[in-house]
Amino acid sequence: MFEVLPVVVNDFPPPCPPPTPLAQGKGKASQAQHADLLVPLDETGFALSDERDSLLWLRINVPADAAPGIYCGRVKFRTADGQTGYCPLALRVHDVMLPKPADYALGLEVWQAWSPLAQQYGVEPFSEPWWELVEAYLRHLADLGAGTAQVGRTCFDWKRAAPGQWQFDFSRFDRYIKLCEKLGISSGISYLGMIDDTAPTQVHYFDAEGALISVEAEPGDEIYDEAWSAFAEALAKHCRDMGWFGKLYVWPADRPATDEQLAAFKHAVDLLRKADPDYRVAVTIDSAAAVPSLTLEVNRFMLSGDATFARSPGDGDEQVSGPESWLSCGPFLVLGQPPGHAYAAGPHAFWGKFDGVAPCSTYLGWSAQINVDTPQVRYRFSGLVYPGRDGPLASLRAERMRLGLQDVELWRVPGTRKTWEWYFYSGDKDGPEKLSDCAEQLRHQALEAASRVNNGE
Predict the structure, then answer these.
(1) Which of the pair, 70 or 119, is modelled with greater confidence?
(2) 38 and 112: one domain?
(3) Is 22 inside any structural domain?
(4) 3-class SS at 3?
(5) CA distance 128 to 213
(6) Is 452 inside a domain boundary?
(7) Is 280 helix (H, G, I), strand (E, B) or coil?
(8) Domain of 88?
(9) Dist CA 366 CA 213 (whole Å)
(10) Does residue 32 register a pLDDT over 90?
(11) Which among 51, 149, 279, 330 could disulfide-bond with 180, CB atoms 3.0 to 4.6 Å apart, if both were Cys?
(12) Is pLDDT larger for residue 334 or for residue 231?
């Protein structure tokens, strides 16, 4: 692990010994059209605007065998007329080794909207250019440590040859899951959506002549039950054949709250379990008070809103037994929240005794025509990955979340307990704003403590 040390330009410490060569670092700089968009910094550098401040965010990859110590360098600046200047940089490498992001104790699932991707880049859905964009997008998610692949109805073709006779095409689903596995997103599969909570639910399928049929049908209606029972049975069999069923979760509805919505949700779960009793079900809820009434139906709860701190942190760092509980970190990645607050997602999930965290990467669901330069919508884009001219790009928001997830791993190292206790009893009181201000202090304390442990101090 490493940290970039604060340096006063006019009071730079004495020169350090020549450092061991490090792997090529990655630098990123914000662009004006998005509040926190980051672009790769290659050997040619980038142009700074003379009309606005620019932020330089550096992520440097340190080899596992790099010796602990302080490494000195500098950032070179050149003006349009050829004058050159330098900004000193000091990098401290600590004697701490963290696991790969995919192996972190806290699970990570990133919610993203795939449907607007083709329109955003002007390509056909599921064409080869579309798959290339999806792969580039998934690489960013895998780099953050995302372990769950998300799929929906568009990944499958349904054909009804006759009443009760259904055929399902899994080719797009298979390609997507295999692509995710190749990139390291392999710990889970989420199938999203059996019920529409905001509009009438529809069942879409092709008839025997190849015509697309769309029928409004809710759980309990004959065509709904027929279609979803057949698909649930086929999906379970296919995933078992592929070795994927053990990591599959189905999310029938998003945030069922009313009695009618809860009844429809439970009916959908009954269809799943009749098709295969080992189906695992997940749901997002806005209050932990709803957990008891759904415990028999649900294997994974995603809690949001006032449910964020519904669970006591206790004394240890083990997860609470029973159904999985994950934290939906919408409160920390919503419109109007600065990117720096994304750091809070991991720590909040850790102290709330959650098994994982699920941020949103929703940019692709927003209109590209929004004027992001006006103050009113400066932080309107709340995603982790944004569309760039040549493909998806990460963000300062994603980098801040990365630090929070790394710090969770640091706090699990023996000897760092006082650091995270300090957070829980003070940093938590003011929410993500407080964490945004004290994140570097927390990280430094945790790195120092973990280093001492590794050195037997």
Answers:
(1) 70
(2) no
(3) yes
(4) strand
(5) 27
(6) no
(7) strand
(8) 2-93
(9) 28
(10) no
(11) 149
(12) 231
